Amino acid sequence: MVLTDSLKKLLIETAYQLKGAAKRKFMAQAVQGLGLGGQRLAQSELGWNRDTIRKGIRELESGITCFDNMSAKGRYKAEEHLPNLLEDIKNIVDSQSQIDPSFKSQRLYTRLSAAEVRKQLIEKCGYSDENLHTSETIRVKLNNLGYKLRRVKKVQPQKKFPQTDAIFEQLDIVNMDASEDKSVLRLSMDGKARVKIGSFDRGGKSRDGTKADDHDYNPKTTVTPYGIFLPEEDELFLYFTESKVTSDFIVDILEDFWLEQKHRFSDIQTLLLNQDNGPQNSSRRTQFMKRIVEFAQKHQVNIRLAYYPPYHSKYNPIERTWAILENHWNGSILDEVETALKFASTMKWKGSHPVVKLVNKTYENGVKLTKKAMAQIEKQIERLTDSTHEVFPNLGNWFIDICCRKTKFI
């Protein structure tokens, strides 16, 4: 049988208008009418798939019709219909973000939603409203490309002091030396934000239908967690106080820790304290320096203070433990101090529970020494200065050595 142009056109258009089993039956009947070699001819001249033709012939000969489960196959991906869709979405999102009012960059003030991205695809990339997929599909594509909705991360420090890089370099040296020296025990210390005690929502989720007050006014009390973390041993010690966190409080919990744990560290001659240079434990805080010198002399252990630069305390290892604590007790009601302590004691860090204590002492804020008294303290400490270190000058506020025998040991 000869396939004329008009016949080929008729067969192609008829098959195109049919679907599923009806289409296969028509193709099978047409191929049978072509005679020997009909399948090959239909493939080459009409563009029909030979597997589809064979399936139609089997259905025709057996009298059994196969119904395709098309719904189980799912739909074609949007990018198969629109090959440039993903690249166009990336170009739109990458070029638009919030900037400062000084217009120092090319970015725009835009909060991009899926609907906004779809609108810009139509306006800027030439897509038509009829052919472009819905906003829900655009949202899925945004998520798949990594542009998921997430909170703004606090990763940029507010300020960078001129000595910041030098402080970090010196910190690396001090901390590395401590990890290699068996006579030095490194402690990471810092406090967490105050926690309101009451029937308040902490933003977490619960399976037991816990209900909280709709406002967090007038808490019963507040507690501040303060931690001592041992990076080399991955051990955590948490102290809670309803009082203010003062210089005396910080040294008191350090002393409590050392009295309880020093039997484990009989070879330790020096305690390296990693802290932020906050107002209560700064190396210029007279009461803190007085107490830490007294601690060294009383317990006959050298103290090395190594502070993180201002606005960079998040790099202190203790900071990593606070997120675990938050995730552990969020979704629960901390309506009593005892409840907060119980939750803290059941959290796990690296598979182990922390040691948790409540400090009941009330501390007075604002205690300080006279200039004359502080001058005597300065004689008992050694600051890292121009005269003691040539590579990192002017770091005396961040690196201090205190010898228990009142002799220099830098």
UniProtKB/TrEMBL annotation:
<dbReference type="InterPro" id="IPR036397">
    <property type="entry name" value="RNaseH_sf"/>
</dbReference>
<protein>
    <submittedName>
        <fullName>ISAzo13 family transposase</fullName>
    </submittedName>
</protein>
<dbReference type="InterPro" id="IPR011518">
    <property type="entry name" value="Transposase_36"/>
</dbReference>
<feature type="region of interest" description="Disordered">
    <location>
        <begin position="198"/>
        <end position="217"/>
    </location>
</feature>
<feature type="compositionally biased region" description="Basic and acidic residues">
    <location>
        <begin position="202"/>
        <end position="217"/>
    </location>
</feature>
<dbReference type="Pfam" id="PF07592">
    <property type="entry name" value="DDE_Tnp_ISAZ013"/>
</dbReference>
